[in-house]
Amino acid sequence: MSGGGTETFVGYEAATSGGDKKRDSLGTTGSPAHLIIKDLGEIHSRLLDHRPVIQGETRYFVKEFEEKRGLREMRVLENLKNMIRETNEHAIPKCRETMQDNLDQVLQRFVCFSCESF
């Protein structure tokens, strides 16, 4: 029976020294209270602090916008290049030819009209 009393006494010492240890170590880094507070801070940060998520989404949006804008501008420039080439190859020669034909007709009429008036 004396062994049982010793076990109880040792358990009592452990309980009282553990209680004293909790009171002494409340402000230290490894204490359970500190770990709980740290966990609560992390939970609060993940649930209520949206800054990192918003910053990431903003960076992604800007990147996508710039890429799409760049692609859109490239398409616009390519279309302009095609229009200029088509104008130089087809429209300008056709306009010159039409203008030359009409100018020749006007000059002939002018020459004939001026000949008749004299």
Automatic annotation (TrEMBL):
Pfam families: Muted
Region called Disordered, residue ranges: 1-28
InterPro entries given in the database record: Bloc1s5
Gene Ontology cellular component terms for the protein in this record: BLOC-1 complex; transport vesicle
Family the entry assigns: Belongs to the BLOC1S5 family.
Protein name: Biogenesis of lysosome-related organelles complex 1 subunit 5
Species lineage: Eukaryota, Metazoa, Chordata, Craniata, Vertebrata
